[in-house]
Each structure stands twice: as structure tokens, then as C-alpha cells.
Specification:
Blueprint lengths: L1 H10 L4 E2 L5 H20 L5 H9 L1 E2 L6 E4 L5 H14 L4 E4 L6 H6 L7 E5 L9 E6 L5 H13 L3 E6 L6 H17 L5 H11 L6 H8 L1 H14 L8 H8 L14 E2 L2 E2 L1
Parallel strand pairs: 1-2, 3-4, 4-5, 6-7
Antiparallel strand pairs: 5-6, 8-9
The structure holds acetoacetyl-coenzyme A.
Acetoacetyl-coenzyme A binds next to helix 2, helix 7 and helix 9.
């Protein structure tokens, strides 16, 4: 999601620096942002000038006022990123895009815990309107208000949520996703028909299995494991999900999950 979040910031006029493990990953993120800007322009969501501004705002070096981490859904990995940043950039707001993990625990590991907050974006970040702002025990009102103001400037609608496992969105989304996988596993219907039930019967824009492909099976498994541990067995991930993750079928990003993917087309 990092590329999508960077695109949202760059499009809204903020000089934005991408960081990743290596140059290949950085080049691929840049390419995805460029493609998305072209697509937004071709769909008349933004002008040619706005697309150009988005490209120009992707900078190589920056002294950040805000850092948004979007690494693996693993608290130790996240702390490993945030802790040194809190010393290098003590004035910056440090935001995590976590879907479920404790912001309070991340803040406790940082030099300026009052500057740590959750900014939970939704896939695909340039299109989805919601920004779930998660307030850690230590977050101060200045940080909270700055992030609420930024959310609106980015064109998002913020909601404020306490730092509880799964916040408001993942707690509900994961229940639906895990139940759909259990239904597929026990042969209730095909993946396409389970998805159609929610798309046509409940007007969800995308059924829960296709959505799991979009989000990443590994990401949803990590969230489900965490919520099972923190809240209870209603979140237990089905064995099928674990098997597919072990097989490398992570969804759209690997070309195969519950569906086979060709670009944006699933079959
Ligand atoms: N920039 C801006 N807008 C764009 C764009 C871009 N790069 N590309 C497309 N759009 C616009 C389109 O013009 C269109 O707008 P209109 O409706 O006004 O015409 C809209 O975005 C939808 O685009 P498409 O018509 O191309 O695509 P679609 O209709 O097939 O919708 C989808 C695709 C938005 C992904 C839709 O299927 C959807 O909403 N799915 C559900 C997504 C969802 O639930 N996400 C949350 C996942 S959970 C999560 O992310 C959190 C987590 O913690 C893991």
C-alpha cells in the first residue's frame, strides 16, 4: 500500500519520498504511481497538470514532517522502522498504516511517543475515501488534530478510533473474509458465487474473496492471527487460507489467490 499512500500525498501537493528495501522495489513503486496517475487522468479524475504535480512531488530527499510506514503486519518489524526514525526526526509525526496492531505498543518504543498515531488507509488508497485515525494512549491532541486536518486536505473522510485490536474496520472486515473462506473450504459454493452473493445481494462493490485477493492473503492471515490472539476464536483463520499463503498464492500481487489475475482482471 506504500505506493498508493505516497501517491495520495504527492497528488495533494506534499513533496514525498519513497523508501523501500532496494532500488528495484522503489522503481516498481514509482512505476505503479505513474500508471495510476495516468489512469486517474484518463478517467478525468485529475487534470494533466495535477498528474504532473503528482510526479514532480515524488522527491529523492526530504526532511519529513510526517512518516507513514506501510511495512509487514508484524509489530517487531514496524517498531524496528519507527524507533530509529523517532530519534532521527524527533519533530516528525510517525504514522503507522497498520490494520490491527497496537499503536500504543509502537509509541512506547519511540523517542517521542506523543507524536505516534495510526493512519489506516484502504486499498486502493487513491480511490478509497476512508482514513481510519487510530489514537494511541500517548498520542497528544496536537498530533491528532494535525492528522485530522491532513486527512481532509488529502480528500479523505477521517474517523477517530481508539487503539483496540482491529480498530473499527478490520474487526468487521476480517469476520466476513474468514467466513467466506470457510464456506469455500466446505464447498458451499464457488468463489465467484460466494462473491456474487455479497456483490449482488448486499451491494458490496467487491465480494469478500476477491477483496482478500486485493488486500493480500498474507496480510489478512496476519490480521486474523492477531485478532484471534487478542480478541477470541471467532477470528480463527481457516486452514485453507494458511495453505494458500504457504503456497505463495497471495492474491493479486502474485497473480494468483482465490482467483487468477491478469492486471486488474480476475478469473
Ligand atoms: N485515481 C483516482 N480515481 C480512480 C483511479 C485512480 N488511479 N482509477 C480509477 N479511479 C476511479 C474511477 O474513475 C471510478 O470512479 P467513478 O465511480 O466516479 O466512475 C472509481 O475510481 C472506480 O474505478 P473503476 O471503475 O476503474 O473500478 P471498479 O468500479 O471496478 O472499482 C474498486 C474498483 C474501487 C477496487 C471497487 O471494486 C471497490 O471499492 N472494491 C472494494 C475495495 C475495498 O473494500 N477496499 C478496502 C479493503 S480493506 C483494506 O484495504 C484495509 C486493510 O487493512 C487491509
Amino acid at each position: 500500500m506504500g505506493a498508493g499512500i505516497a501517491e495520495v500525498l504527492a497528488r495533494a501537493g506534499h513533496p514525498t519520498q519513497l523508501q523501500d528495501l532496494n532500488d528495484d522495489l522503489l522503481a516498481s513503486a514509482r512505476q505503479r504511481i505513474h500508471q495510476s496517475l495516468e489512469r486517474a487522468h484518463s478517467k478525468q479524475k485529475i487534470t494533466a497538470e495535477q498528474a504532473q504535480r503528482g510526479r514532480d512531488n515524488l522527491v529523492d530527499h526530504n526532511r519529513p514532517d510526517l512518516v507513514v510506514e506501510a511495512v509487514l503486519e508484524d509489530i517487531q518489524v514496524k517498531i524496528g522502522i519507527l524507533q530509529p526514525l523517532s530519534h532521527q526526526h524527533p519533530e516528525a509525526i510517525l504514522a503507522s498504516n497498520t490494520s490491527s496492531l497496537s499503536l500504543t505498543q509502537m509509541a512506547a518504543a519511540c523517542h517521542r511517543p506523543e507524536r505516534v498515531i495510526g493512519m489506516h488507509f484502504f486499498n486502493p488508497p487513491p480511490i478509497m475515501e476512508l482514513l481510519e485515525i487510530v489514537v494511541a494512549e500517548q498520542t497528544d491532541t496536537h498530533t491528532q488534530q494535525a492528522v485530522e486536518q491532513l486527512a481532509r486536505q488529502l480528500g479523505k473522510t477521517p474517523i477517530l478510533v481508539k487503539d483496540v485490536p482491529g480498530f473499527a474496520s478490520s474487526r468487521l472486515g476480517i469476520i466476513l473474509g474468514m467466513e467466506a473462506i470457510r464456506m469455500l473450504e466446505s464447498g458451499v459454493a464457488s468463489a465467484a458465487d460466494i462473491d456474487k452473493a455479497m456483490e449482488l445481494g448486499y451491494r458490496h462493490p467487491m465480494g469478500p474473496l476477491k477483496l482478500t485477493d486485493l488486500v493480500g492473503l498474507d496480510v489478512r492471515l496476519a490480521i486474523a492471527d492477531h485478532l484471534t490472539h487478542e480478541i477470541g476464536p471467532q477470528f480463527t483463520p481457516p486452514p485453507l487460507l494458511r495453505r494458500l499463503v504457504r503456497a505463495g498464492r497471495l492474491g493479486k500481487k502474485t497473480g494468483h489467490g482465490f482467483y487468477r489475475w491478469n492486471g486488474n482482471e480476475a478469473s
